[in-house]
Amino acid sequence: METILLTSLTSTLAALIVAGVAAMLTRRREHEAEWRKLKHACYQEYISAMSEIVEGRSTAAAQLRFANAVNGLILVAPENVLRARDAFLQENS
Questions:
Q1: What gap in Å lies between CA 14 and CA 71, rounded to an integer?
Q2: Which of 3, 6, 52, 72 has a beta carbon 3.0–4.6 Å from 62's, enabling a disulfide?
Q3: Is 58 left (phi over 0), alpha (psi -120 to 50) or beta?
């Protein structure tokens, strides 16, 4: 009787641990996917806004959109990308 009870408790505990770990890993994977989507959207907005400020096409609204996109990169871009962005802005200012 004791062996059956101990086996049942061990099985239940193992099932709970496995379910908890699986839920944690699923949440982490979903969070990483959302982060990648956000980064992609920020980079896409930056490139799109940059294409609107070329000579002859630039408007005040395009300049504002580009400024917002440049600032938005601060949220998602690593340091080396920010340095390259700053060098590009310095060269083209």
A1: 48
A2: 52
A3: beta
| Tokens 């193992």 -> residue | 14
Q: What is the pTM of this model?
A: 0.73
Side chain identity at residue 63, one-letter code: Q
d(CA 17, CA 41): 36
Contact 41, 27 (CB under 8 A): no
Map residue 53 onto helix, strand or coil: coil
Residue 41 tokens read as 């959207």
The dihedrals phi and psi of 52, each to the nearest 5 degrees, come to -90, -10
Please write the tens of the pLDDT for every residue from 59-78: 999 999 999 999 999 999 99
How much of the chain exceeds pLDDT 90, in percent?
Answer: 75
Look up residue 55 and give its DSSP letter: T
Q: How far apart are CA 12 and CA 8, in angstroms?
A: 6
